[in-house]
């Protein structure tokens, strides 16, 4: 079973997960709960974060996600999958930001995964005899947001978006060793490959 609720669906995950636990005749052999790397927002970019780093939420949304992870483990023994910034066809917010010339934090450290590779990352733990938990779904090519929007602007033939002021240069860097072991080579190993395919 794969659980892909969103934090905006309810103020808490516990009630919908409790209803879900009561529905099947027995607990599924394997459950994957799709969370988010947002639960790591309390860290900085001083070192790459691995699955051994505990959640460090700051926002209400991140705290709801952490609560969901805990409930999914309690009710289903779930494998926790935390995608980084998901992009792909239909997930083109950053492209629209560049086209509209809206300011962005050029100094922000970012991580992402193309939706095709995310789908593979969701499926992999369902058949693995001993999947790591939690698991970060990221392409392993962290980049400054300024690098990403500048690349998109060149491809789109428009000026790069201006820098926000202030531009604190926040964000995190994720180590992608664990998810790449079961997946092997990604179809879109970095933002250039993924966004170029979209464009």
Short structural summary:
The chain is an alpha/beta fold and 199 residues long.
| Gross geometry | globular
Total number of helical segments? 7
Mean pLDDT: 92
Helix content: 25-40%
Order of strands, main sheet, comes to 1-2-4-8
Low-confidence stretches: none
Quaternary status: single chain
Order of helices and strands: EHEEHEEHEEHEEHEHH
Distance between the termini: 33 Å
The radius of gyration is 18 Å
- Tell how many strands the DSSP assignment holds: 10
Q: Structural class of the secondary elements? A: alpha/beta
Biggest sheet layout: 4 strands, parallel
Content of β-strand: 5-15%
Could you characterize what this model shows?
The protein has 199 residues and is an alpha/beta fold. Helices cover 37% and strands 14% of the residues. It has helices at 14-22, 60-76, 93-100, 115-127, 145-156, 177-183, 191-198; strands at 2-3, 32-34, 48-49, 79-83, 85-87, 109-110, 112-114, 135-137, 143-144, 173-174. It has a four-stranded parallel β-sheet, with helices on both faces. Strands 3-10 form a two-stranded parallel sheet. The model has no long low-confidence stretch (mean pLDDT 92).
Keyword list:
alpha/beta; four-stranded parallel beta sheet; two-stranded parallel ribbon; globular
Strand and helix layout:
Layout: E1 2-3, H1 14-22, E2 32-34, E3 48-49, H2 60-76, E4 79-83, E5 85-87, H3 93-100, E6 109-110, E7 112-114, H4 115-127, E8 135-137, E9 143-144, H5 145-156, E10 173-174, H6 177-183, H7 191-198
Parallel strand pairs: 1-2, 2-4, 3-10, 4-8, 5-7
Antiparallel strand pairs: 6-9
């Amino acid at each position: 079973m794969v659980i892909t609720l969103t934090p905006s669906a309810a103020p808490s995950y516990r009630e919908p997960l409790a209803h879900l636990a009561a529905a099947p005749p027995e607990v599924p052999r394997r459950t994957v709960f799709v969370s988010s790397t947002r639960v790591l927002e309390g860290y900085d970019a001083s070192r790459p974060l691995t699955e051994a780093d505990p959640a460090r939420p700051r926002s209400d949304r991140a705290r709801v996600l952490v609560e969901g992870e805990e409930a999914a483990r309690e009710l289903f023994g779930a494998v926790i999958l935390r995608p980084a910034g998901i992009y792909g066809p239909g997930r083109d917010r950053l492209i629209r930001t560049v086209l509209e010339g809206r300011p962005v934090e050029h100094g922000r450290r970012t991580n992402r995964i193309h939706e095709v590779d995310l789908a593979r990352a969701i499926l992999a733990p369902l058949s693995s005899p001993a999947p790591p938990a939690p698991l970060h779904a990221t392409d392993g090519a962290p980049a400054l947001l300024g690098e990403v929007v500048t690349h998109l602007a060149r491809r789109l033939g428009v000026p790069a978006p201006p820098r926000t002021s202030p531009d604190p240069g926040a964000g995190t860097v994720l180590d992608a060793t664990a998810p790449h072991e079961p997946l092997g080579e990604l179809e879109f190993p970095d933002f250039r490959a993924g966004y170029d395919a979209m464009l």
